[in-house]
Amino acid sequence: MAAMIVDSNVLLDILTEDSQWFQWASTALAQAAQHHKLVINAIIFAEVSVRFPRIEDVNDAIPLEWFERRAIPYEAAFLAAKCFLAYRRRGGERSAVLPDFFIGAHAAVEGLRLITRDVGRYRTYFPRLDIICPSEA
Length: 137
Fold this sequence. Notes:
There is one protein chain. This protein has helices at about 10-15, 20-35, 40-50, 55-60, 75-90, 100-110, 120-125, and strands spanning about 1-5, 35-40, 65-70, 115, 130. The model has no long low-confidence stretch (mean pLDDT about 95). It has one domain: Rossmann fold (3-Layer(aba) Sandwich), CATH 3.40.50.1010. A five-stranded parallel β-sheet has the order 3-2-1-4-5, with helices on both faces. The protein is α/β, with parallel strands linked by helices and about 140 residues long.
C-alpha cells in the first residue's frame, strides 16, 4: 500500500472542526485512508500537540492504529536546509528552517504523497511532490 504524509493543517482542521476546512479535510483524509497508509512525523506531531495539554491526548487524537509515525531521514533534513537556503535567497524573512520544509523534504525523499490545504511553499520548493489539496480534491 502506498503511503501519504498528512500535513498538520489537515489534522487540525478535523480536530478543531474548522468551519471552513473541516468538510474538505475529513472527506479527503477518509478517501486517502482507503488507498494509502497515513504517515506523520515528529514535526507534524509537534504542530498538532500545541492544542493538547497532555501527550496522551495527542496520542488519542492521532492514534497509532491510523497514523504511522516515521522519523525524518537525514537526507530529508539536508534537503529541507537547502530549500530553506533558497527561500532566504528569494527574500524569505524567517531565520529558522520552517516546518513545511521538513515535511515537504520528508515526503520528497521517501516518495510520499502529501495531503495539505496549504500548498504555496510545497509547490515552490518541492515542485515534483504529488499533492492532494482543496483545488485538486
